[in-house]
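Hey, resending since the last one bounced:
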Amino acid sequence: MNLPSPTSIECRSVLAFGGARSGKSRYALELAEAAARERLYLATGSAGDDEMAARIARHKAERGEGWTTLEEPLELCAALGEHARPERAILVDCLTLWLANAMFAGRDLAAETERLCTTIRLLKGPAVFVSNEVGAGIVPDTRLGREFRDWQGRLNQDVARACDCVVLVAAGLPTLLKPSQPPQIALR
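The structure tokens again:
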């Protein structure tokens, strides 16, 4: 079955989510590259150790030419408000790291989530948001892990409602979840 891509149904905001190494970032990159010649990669991660620094360098090299990169681990809403415009596509990678940063900074996660969703609805240009699906695995064995998993699930649900389109990526294959038609039960 060949599902339409979000670009063929004209979405201004897209949530692309899935598990680790699912292909969601690559898919989001392709969407943003198809959307505009001017592109901003809004990175929420920061190089806290050598492995993360190498990972960031590898991702920058994979993006290639035509991208401007801005690292913003906490003030995502301010960065979106400042940099969004109709002729520029923004790729936010990823909401999971942003949430972890906000949690460790002691931020009010409910307020931050609400602020992000309001920002998404008011964006002045196209944006693609990448997030992890962390609730499909095992139950974390620590209280902090369970709390993070729960907040990540809430964040994904709220951002999915705020975005025009939602795409689940698994094994490199995108599946369009929103917009969709709800099923109708036929009474016989």
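The domain at 6-177 is CATH 3.40.50.300 (Rossmann fold).

Sorry for the duplicate.
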